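Lab notebook, bench 4. We co-purified these components, and the gel suggests they stay together. Before we commit to crystallization screens, I want a quick structural picture of the whole thing.
Request: model the full complex, all chains together.
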Amino acid sequence: MLQVRDGLLQVLLWRRAHDPFAGSWALPGGYLEPGETLEQSIRRHLAQKVDVRELAHLEQLETRSEPDRTPHEWQLATAYLGLVPSDADPRIPDDTAWHPVDALPPLAFDHESIVLAGRERLRAKLSYTNVGYALAPREFTISQLRDIYAAALGHDVSATNLQRVLLRRGVLESTGQLRASGPSGGRPGALFRFRKQTLEVTDQFAVLRPPSGAGPSSLLRSRAFPAKGGRHR
Amino acid sequence: MLQVRDGLLQVLLWRRAHDPFAGSWALPGGYLEPGETLEQSIRRHLAQKVDVRELAHLEQLETRSEPDRTPHEWQLATAYLGLVPSDADPRIPDDTAWHPVDALPPLAFDHESIVLAGRERLRAKLSYTNVGYALAPREFTISQLRDIYAAALGHDVSATNLQRVLLRRGVLESTGQLRASGPSGGRPGALFRFRKQTLEVTDQFAVLRPPSGAGPSSLLRSRAFPAKGGRHR
DNA sequence: GCAAAAGTGTTGTGTCTACACCCATGT
DNA sequence: ACATGGGTGTAGACACAACACTTTTGC
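Here is the predicted assembly.
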């Protein structure tokens, strides 16, 4: 479960009470109950840590099966990536805490590599989808959004270009509103929101895309009128 | 397991001998043995159908857990995408056959949706990675490669542009060789090969990429010399 | 010479980055 | 007025699609 807090990308970790790895930090989760899907199970386990309504996006990452990933007993684990908007401040139990992904404590099992894989997935999807909605508050100024993107991506982001890219793609829309300017002055920022609150691919990055006029399956298409004489056009 | 055969994208299916779904077609696979990773297990089951050396690429797709995806007993399944070069013609057992993905017979369980998900993954990766190596023969002409891409993508592909895109990205390299021209004449084609035989992302499709000069983590960077007077340049 | 197949040259388009400049507010 | 932060205008780089044209072969 990732969130941008205090300008940093952070992950919710849980301090293990029991062996193995008693006392060290781990990702929240647990066993699958009979009759439950993996997604239901993750949501159930997370609900014990955080109000589920805060969870703005959840997607499957990968199933790990290495026999030595857990000691004593062999366990398969399916990892999920969950995202929480940066303005949510869920009450969390005493045995959990947010940790910056850039400065993780030693983690139990293979959880460190799972966290890093989740971060990579998030970074990729920030580029070509609208997942931003799951990290941002409902309404925000472009600079707020820029800080969220910068924290998640790990590098500076230009507010100018971020605005233009997301507007051109139709990912953001303007609420007519303005945010009052801060105590140190400055022009008030316009408030924006994500047009959709569900995942959408916004950049097909599909080089090798279908030829302009053609339908999806042109394999059966006959090359009508082999152009004996005239060029049309 | 997907392959381009006879100009069509096809999937290797296995006719089930036993209930449930006795007699209908299904994806090859089977139970995980103790101490085995999922990947080892898939390779083991596939080896019973096809020589494993033919498998040029294998990647995990998704784990399905819906309780009603199998009758009577609840089973989780982790789906993998395997690719075989189009010049391989593996000996396959009598109870298996290749089927065009465009014209699947009714499949057991949720296997149809898995096949379609695999095709989507393949199509996406053809655009931004070098996965083509896993579908193409070791050496090929551009038109052969175009036919393979066209079959996998489901639409016409321009040989001209395919060549330029893949060369520009450094994905293909020319062997000095020429292929003899066919019986109907025509200029002989140059032979190319994929520079790498392992998966590589070749198009970052990373809009929102780091600013040109900056290292990966510029969050800790102090904005040295706040430019009191002079502009530098 | 002519058809077939392969390959190159060239133009136009869209999307992005970078950077200069203008705008609105607080003190 | 001027500092602070927000927003627009514009130019250049790049990757790609489309298509005209040239090259090399078989017949």
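Residues 111-128 of chain B form the longest helix (18 residues). Worth comparing against the SEC data before the next meeting. Residues 158, 160-161, 164-165, 168, 180-188, 203 of chain B lie near DNA strand D (CB under 10 Å from a C1').
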